[in-house]
Amino acid sequence: MTSHQEKIIKIAVVGDVHDQWEAEDELALKHLGVDLVLFVGDFGNESVDVVEAIASLNLPKAAIMGNHDAWYSASDWGRKRCPYDGEKEDRVQEQLDLLGETHVGYGKLDFPELNLSVVGSRPFSWGGLVWKNAEFYQERYKVTNFAESTERIVAAANRAAYETIIFMGHNGPIGLGDRAEDPCGKDWYPIGGDYGDPDFADAIAQSRNQGKTIALVTFGHMHHQLRHTKELRNPIYIGAEGTVYLNAASVPRIIQTPSDRLRNFSLVSLQNGAVSQVSLVWLGRDFNIASEQILYCRQESVQSILSQ
Hints:
Helices cover 24% and strands 24% of the residues. It is α/β, with parallel strands linked by helices and 308 residues long. It has one domain: Metallo-dependent phosphatases (Purple Acid Phosphatase, chain A, domain 2, 4-Layer Sandwich), CATH 3.60.21.10.
């Protein structure tokens, strides 16, 4: 009999949505036969309708909010451009209410059938070493700096029921490289620099020191196509401990070709508490895979599977 640890768990990571979510996406995910769906945020500019559709997805799932999900609420800049009356509507809270426990920002969600927990980093992140939108975080979360933010993430990880953890954020952690093409590299002028989140990185390190097995860290925010060269970002980083870091923000995630309509998902295979493969797939109208790019393959896991 196959145990939880031996089973290959198939995870779909949905990169920055930016209003590109259709009824066909749920059908596509079911056609792929995934066990879990992770949404790394930026559903739209406070797009309540998009979040409502994703909240109704009938599959095990977890989500975290991105900077665009508080586009008109988090900053003075955004509030001045808000197309609705912020005194009468709170679209940020509407989105959070729709997602309920599915939203893991500063929280966790246990999946007993998969023997793992998903832990969320700081929601609504813009990235970088400056503590942005201080009033927003104070009012919403009573968090005033990176250190307090780290504490919130670590506390969530400590409440996780399972030792195997998937961390997810909108932006990734600092420490994955400072080139523009690195997973969280700065690709606007001046070019270069690590734009990862320091609180996320500290929380991962502390959780690992406390004995948690961190199989995967996934995020988005920094789109795969670089702004200054239009070349592609490196979406994968492998940590010294074997943790796989995945930037899933392949934007736009739905494209129309002359002959087909294609939608992308990042697929992660998890076995024995470790990632064995990561790929970026594009599905056509028939929900079959039109193209697949293998981003990572753990050779020792492949050999282990073949020898069983």
